[in-house]
Specification:
- The protein is mostly helical.
- The chain has one domain.
- Helix content is 81%, strand content 0%.
- It is elongated, with a radius of gyration of 14 Å.
Length: 85
């Protein structure tokens, strides 16, 4: 489940950054951001929840937990964390 959430979060982030935001500013199309923004938000929160859950289950140190959460703000960070273990 963790990998699924991580890949979905990365996909939503990349679509938001490279499709929806350019359409918003270059073509004045707001719909992509209005749809993908909340979806990405929910997936980001789900990813953070899954990192905390996994850190408790696998007894991660606070540094590992921090880097797992920090990876969520990087475009491909969640995939690295999900495939690491």
């Amino acid at each position: 489940m963790f990998k699924l959430i991580a890949y979905a979060e990365v996909t939503s982030y990349l679509l938001l950054l490279f499709v929806a935001v350019p359409l918003k500013y270059l073509a004045d199309q707001q719909l992509g951001v209005k749809i993908l923004g909340p979806i990405h938000g929910v997936l980001f929160v789900a990813y953070c929840f899954m990192v905390i859950r996994r850190s408790n289950a696998e007894d991660w140190s606070w540094k590992q937990t921090f880097w797992g959460l920090f990876a969520g703000i990087l475009p491909l960070g969640p995939i690295r964390i999900a495939t690491k273990g």
